[in-house]
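Researcher: Go.
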Amino acid sequence: MKAREFMTPAPLFVEGVSSVKRISEVLQTSCHSFPVLNMAGNIIGLIPKNFLIVLIERHHWYHHHEHK
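Model: Structure:
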């Protein structure tokens, strides 16, 4: 059996640097874990849904400040 036989053709993923909005979107799905992609679009890991929830609950994110 090959992965393409049982995987969805458009899997959900999160980027290594994702917005809170994006994480909120994937948390609303029934998936239990998500591939993590780097800026080049390569898979760099897998993150479980419950870990994403903990990151949000503990406010573990950074604020992007534009330089003017």
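Model: The first strand starts at residue 14 and ends at 15.
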